[in-house]
Design goal:
With 330 residues, the chain is an alpha+beta fold. The chain contains eleven helices and nine strands. The C terminus is likely disordered.
Length: 330
Amino acid sequence: MDNKLKLENLYKRLFVKLEKVDIKYSFISIKHLIDIKNEIDKLYAKGMFDECFFEERMQYFDYNIPSELPEGQTIIITAIKQPKLKVSFQLNGRKYNTIVPPTYSYLTDNMAFNVISNIIRSDNYKLIGANLPAKLLSVCGGLTKYGKNNITYIPLWGSFFRLRIFISDLPCILDHWQEFETMEECKHCKACLIKCPTHALVQDRFLIHAERCMTFMNEKSDNFPNWIKSEWNNALIGCMICQDICPLNKRNKNWIEEGENFFEEETNMLLYGVKKEKLPLKTQRKLKRLYLYDDYKVLKRNLQALIDIQNENCITSGQLSALKLKAECL
């Protein structure tokens, strides 16, 4: 069997396996690393990135062929469906429920890596993770399309998935590279623009004002700016407002699976800010299963904000019930 036919058969086996386990995929030639970098640089030169956001989120990407895989030839982009996770906290005899958005769990990362590497290593090819802008690559690879909220979407899945980027020395026999596309459905829809409380989404430009996005705010360990209202917090980390209102997420927005439950003692320790290394091992394990152990520095502030707003809503509901009862007695 000649090398070309052997390589084609390897790709066929890989595609069959990925589709069998419901992993979406796209392949891009390594030569497009420079194109991705140029696209980011172009947006930065146009002033489309806030300086603080750019320094924190965009400068750590590595657009070079990895030194540990200098023969790298192919960028592989994968997407796997993921739900929201429900997380509960017990405090003062009351349960507080919140969610972790779909993209924060790394559980499926190993799944994608194992499926691909198990197939290609039979022909002595290697696979490593890559530190690259996943959303932009997935759109340029034709795997996803951008929504008006700068979230990427896949038909039927909406935005309920996690992207993962790999680099392999597997020769790239097909290159899915294309100019990035936005969704047709967004052209006449303003749902996310209207719903976004921070006005990070605007009509006159495609790229959002990421520095005003609740996700960006909720992932930073600084205090919330004074203009942020407590009721805008809706997740333990990140934000789901623009995704929950999106018509393309109608079939998925209520896809919530059980995550973890933190007991009263654990909740108090989180709110007190006990160092994560000093937490009981069972509590550390819960945070690690939620993939929030590395984001522990923001949890005290975010959890307190969520508890405060749920308490305010509870008081408001109680006041309304009292008024209704009073009215019925008159």
